[in-house]
Amino acid sequence: MPTVDYEPKVRKEVRRIKNSKSLTREDRDLLLEYKRDLEVEGLSDARIFKLLIHTRKFAERLDGKGLAGATEEDIKDLVAGVQKRDLADSTKRDYREILKRFYKWLNGGSTQIWLSG
Fold first, then answer.
1. Topology of domain 7-115, CATH
2. I need a labelling partner for 94 at 20 to 30 A (CA). Which of 40, 56, 80, 84 fits?
3. Per the confidence metrics, is the pTM higher than 0.70?
4. What angle in degrees, to the nearest 10, is found between the helix axes of 89-106 and 25-41?
């Protein structure tokens, strides 16, 4: 059974992040640093791609506020937007976990209780 090579997809996503006009400079830098740390963890290219693409999309939905500057209310709005979409429950859970993982990384290992679940 053929497998998908995610390395080119990750490279393309990195280019998309670097060239995005929808992301703040800080978000671009954060996402690239996050990618590096995911690689250090030994995650597969497939997992890195999934985490990066969705975290970038979340950042773009913050309308320039930036991932680091987002308030609890901003993040709750992102989660509420996911919950309202016509998606499988497992996909909604994945998206919440992607946000949770990013903010846990950003905050040095701690995450907000309201983001768990």
1. DNA polymerase; domain 1 (1.10.150)
2. 40
3. yes
4. 100
